[in-house]
Amino acid sequence: MAALTINVSTVNPLGDRVFVKISPSEEKTAGGILLPDTAKEKPQVGEVVAVGPGKVDNNGNRTPLEVKVGDKVLYSKYAGTDIKLGGEDYVLLSEKDILASISE
User: Using one digit for the tens of pLDDT, what is the confidence trace for 67-82?
Assistant: First the structure.
């Protein structure tokens, strides 16, 4: 069996899927207390790095996604599939799991 090398540029989501790079979690609380790894919550914010072509409706027409590469998004806490590539954390999720687009 041949070895498969996966990197961010080779991931092409299908349908209405979105590939998001997870933003790092907070190391300190607002009061300045350092958090151990076991107390950190899973981040819910990330940057879109790849999007699928969109979902096909009942008439065979493709509906484009509302998010695009480079958008910062807020997504559901337990949504998607966590993936680790090259030491970075990513999540592959459906567009319906994205709650909001964040503007800075």
Answer: 999 999 999 988 899 9
Q: Which token pair is 49?
A: 């790095």
26/19: higher pLDDT: 19
Going by pLDDT thresholds of 50, 70 and 90, the confidence category of residue 66 is very high
CA dist 53 → 2, 65, 67 (Å): 28, 7, 11
CA distance 43 to 101: 15
Q: What's the Rg (C-alpha) of the chain?
A: 16
Query: Is the domain defined by 12-24+42-102 classed in CATH 2.30.33.40?
Result: yes
Torsion angle in degrees (nearest 10) through CA of 62, 63, 69, 70: 170
Q: In whole angstroms, what is the distance from residue 90 CA to residue 95 CA?
A: 15
What's the CA gap between 97 and 74, in Å, rounded?
Answer: 9
CB atoms within 10 A of CB 73: 22
The stretch 5-13 carries a mean pLDDT of 78
